[in-house]
Amino acid sequence: MHATNANGQTSPASEQSAVAAVAPVAHQISIEHSFETAHRLPQLPGKCASLHGHSWQVTVSVSAPALCSDGTVVEFGALKAGVRQWINTHLDHGTMLGIRDPLALHLYTAGSKVFRFGADDREAVGDEERLAFDLPWPTVEAVAVLLRRVSQAVLVALPSAPNASIGRVLVRETHLNTAAYGPADAL
Q1: pTM of the model
Q2: For residue range 67-90, what is the model confidence (pLDDT) as tens digits?
């Protein structure tokens, strides 16, 4: 099925059309960031019911079917700056708790940085908490959902390739435990 030249080699154009016929193609970039944040999961049995911290790492992937005229999906620096700024402002060196966790009020009153999951429009301290309104507890899975939403909001505000979108967001809470959230075909 491949077109061959006089030397019997497959031409690049025929390779591309053969690959395109098998699977759709897209460009993808990824950025990473790490942050330190505590959380607790009192709804789960075991040691995670106690307040504890992690060195979290997030990898955000962006894909697009074609590149911008400048040859990029999105400019790395701008995407990294936006995602890092949000994480550093709202999560880094703070505590993630569920809205119903009694520790939330105590830590907030004591002047600690607290991000509450599950806050509705009446309960949210700011727009940032509304991003996690349907996520009742800060599990690693919920953090992946939150950071995908944050990343999509950052991407929408930047010049990017046509139809660029956030793909998989991978969150690592320990060197052994990760959760990913994104399109099913990207996982």
Answers
A1: 0.86
A2: 999 999 999 999 999 999 999 999
Three-class HEC string of the chain: CCCECCCCCECHHHHHHHHHHHCCCCEEEEEEEEEEEEECCCCCCCHHHCCEEEEEEEEEEEEECCCCCCCCCECHHHHHHHHHHHHHHHCCCEEEEECCCHHHHHHHHCCCCEEEECCCCCCCCCHHHHCCCCCCCCCHHHHHHHHHHHHHHHHHCCCECCCCEEEEEEEECCCCCEEEECCHHHC
For tokens 């460009």, what's the residue? 27
pLDDT at 23: 72
Whole-number Å distance between alpha carbons of 136 and 179: 17
pLDDT at 2 over 50: no
Q: How many CB atoms lie within 10 A of CB 60?
A: 26
